[in-house]
Specification:
This protein has a three-stranded mixed β-sheet, with no helix packed on it. A three-stranded parallel β-sheet has the order 6-7-8, sandwiched between helices. Strands 4-5 form a two-stranded antiparallel sheet. The radius of gyration is 19 Å and the shape is elongated. By secondary structure, the chain is of the alpha/beta class. A hairpin with a 7-residue loop joins strand 4 and strand 5. The chain is built from seven helices and eight strands; from the N terminus they run E-E-E-H-H-H-H-H-E-E-E-H-E-H-E. It is 44% helix and 16% strand. The termini are far apart.
Length: 212
């Protein structure tokens, strides 16, 4: 077809289970390692960050109170959805200049499965029954911290992000993610996966933008 106008990708934020534009109305262009334009990405503002924290705090009671079995099932669902979009993630890692995109995507999917299996085992491994000098029992039980901030590393925009995100949410915390400034698209695509993977809105909130 001739004369067709290419539809450029416009990546939005992910806050509270929705995909809003930045409150600032600003965006910046993301290019591949070879200079090819890829997308316009939202430039998050301080208000966007506050909104993300509010959403994460609002989602915390229900998520931390969910059963470990349910959280494990949801993380496994994330792995399933990523598997279905493998080609997209591989292409984004290739554009970012990753050395071995297929291996990076496979490792990221496997990481979700691994942490899904740990969901109902954390209490047994981390918890303990403590000997005390008295007629009572003393137990140590792990509890979620609350809202956790996660910064995606620039050199591992997908695997590095998953390796930080999965352990935070499997244990009942909610998260505000700051995507890699140089390679934000894997984080944006992961947010789209989370939105369709039974992860409740607000459990993970993703911000993109420049830090300068």
């Amino acid at each position: 077809m001739t004369g067709r106008v290419e539809v450029r990708r416009t990546a939005k934020l992910y806050i509270g289970g929705a995909f809003p534009r930045s409150e600032s109305g600003r965006s910046y262009e993301v290019t591949a390692h070879d200079g090819k334009p890829l997308a316009q990405v939202a430039q998050a503002s301080r208000k966007d960050l506050r909104d993300a924290v509010v959403a994460a705090r609002g989602a915390f009671p229900a998520w931390s109170g969910a059963t470990a079995y349910l959280r494990g099932q949801i993380l496994y669902r994330v792995a399933e959805m990523m598997e279905g979009r493998r080609a997209q993630f591989e292409a984004e890692l290739a554009d970012a200049g990753a050395a071995d995109p297929p291996r990076g995507v496979s490792a990221s999917i496997d990481r979700w499965v691994w942490y899904a299996g740990w969901a109902d085992k954390l209490a047994q491994i981390v918890g303990a029954s403590n000997p005390v000098a008295g007629p009572y029992f003393d137990f140590t039980l792990p509890e979620p911290t609350g809202v956790v901030g996660v910064v995606a590393p620039g050199d591992q925009a997908l695997l590095g992000l998953v390796s930080r995100l999965a352990p935070a949410i499997v244990s009942g915390n909610t998260v505000v993610v700051l995507a890699s400034e140089r390679s934000p698209l894997p984080a944006v695509s992961l947010a789209e996966v989370l939105a369709t993977s039974d992860v409740p809105g607000g459990v993970v909130n993703t911000l993109t933008g420049r830090t300068a």
